[in-house]
């Protein structure tokens, strides 16, 4: 079974470059389906399992997808299907965002309903309600959502989102790009990845204003074309390295990190005592002078509040803080699966409802642990970097979904970390990792 082996205690220094954002590139690949003319060139595309799945999804619908160095070229002129294969959709929730582009351009789409996942139930009711407000008929049958636009195509509408859902905002924004008239999304998600998507849509000929604020206005156009676009850096990958640097760094430079995208995380790291220097093209981080982070109270919420996708990594960091911290998860119902794994490494955490209460311990000890979701995997790697002895992390398919060469990047900044796929032998193996 594939696993990562980490020998804890080595300092991290030098520079690490952040890749393009997973949560931006996925809807951008889906948005490419809107182009009836021309070819899109997307740059800064990270090497991720999710990206491969999304590229395969648009290819299965008829788009011609050509990989190039650092990016991808997509010709979506001849789409022949509005039903992405179930096998691809089930692997990745984000594939539901092909619904908006397909419905807008072809008047119909049939997408397998994404189920819940390891972080809790993840309904798509707000996506469907938004598309219905634009005139679509939605029926759910045999696990699929069938969406059909009215004879004259989708019509612009005023849509208030009960929750500022990232995915619903994306689906509605893409569907509205080719609808008749104006769509207004109120209580829209303000995430930087949605701004990146809006910029790409506008480069394709759409008219989207207000992305990044609560209210997005989209004036529908008749036709869209391919465009060139460079994906923004991944703020969660940047945050993951900043947390690692705040714990184990000797002055770690996270190149490409955009401080504006992670203000809440930077504020928390500074509150914990880490030193942060915002530079033109990245962020440098040093650990607290005392060598130990101060305890924190952290609460996840929608952007620009503290991101749920950085909850597990921060929780791992706080296991060795100099006191008691609280971490409250408000976005997803069940995003504390990593707690049990961190406890196996000696962390002192108990859950009270939606809050994890973390009593800092002097040190963690290496153990064999399993990622339960993508960010849980990153949290366990961070825990392994600071633990005594050897840590063996399993469940790598989660990490591969969203981190581009995580092991190689940590190796390059001084971590003692190796990845073993399948039956390769583990030279570093020791009893403590069992
Ligand atoms: C590919 C991608 O970009 N994934 C991100 C996106 O996921 P995703 O787009 O799935 O997250 P949402 O913003 O939609 O979900 C936020 C909350 O709204 C709820 N909800 C959402 C839609 C809906 O129709 N009904 C409903 O009740 C969800 O269950 C959740 O509790 O934003 C999340 C919240 O920042 C991040 O953790 C994910 O990394
Ligand atoms: C929850 C995440 O992603 P997804 O929405 O793709 O599951 C994540 O990136 O942490």
UniProtKB/TrEMBL annotation:
EC number: 2.5.1.7
One GO CC term, this protein: cytoplasm
HAMAP family: MurA
Gene that this polypeptide is encoded by: murA
Family to which the UniProt record says this protein belongs: Belongs to the EPSP synthase family. MurA subfamily.
Keyword Cell membrane tagged: no
Residues bearing PTM 2-(S-cysteinyl)pyruvic acid O-phosphothioketal: 117
Record's keyword annotation contains Acetylation: no
InterPro entries, per database record: Enolpyruvate_Tfrase_dom (IPR001986), Enolpyruvate_Tfrase_sf (IPR036968), MurA_subfamily (IPR050068), RNA3'P_cycl/enolpyr_Trfase_a/b (IPR013792), UDP_GlcNAc_COvinyl_MurA (IPR005750)
Annotated keywords: Cell cycle, Cell division, Cell shape, Cell wall biogenesis/degradation, Cytoplasm, Peptidoglycan synthesis, Pyruvate, Transferase
Gene3D superfamilies according to UniProt: Enolpyruvate transferase domain
Protein name stated in the entry: UDP-N-acetylglucosamine 1-carboxyvinyltransferase
GO BP terms, alphabetized: cell division; cell wall organization; peptidoglycan biosynthetic process; regulation of cell shape; UDP-N-acetylgalactosamine biosynthetic process
Swiss-Prot/TrEMBL catalytic activity: phosphoenolpyruvate + UDP-N-acetyl-alpha-D-glucosamine = UDP-N-acetyl-3-O-(1-carboxyvinyl)-alpha-D-glucosamine + phosphate
Pathway linked to the protein: Cell wall biogenesis; peptidoglycan biosynthesis
Enzyme class: transferase
Active-site annotation: 117 (proton donor)
Residues the record lists as binding phosphoenolpyruvate: 22-23
Superkingdom as given in the UniProt entry: Bacteria
Family matches, as PANTHER family: UDP-N-ACETYLGLUCOSAMINE 1-CARBOXYVINYLTRANSFERASE
Record-listed UDP-N-acetyl-alpha-D-glucosamine binding positions: 93, 122-126, 309, 331
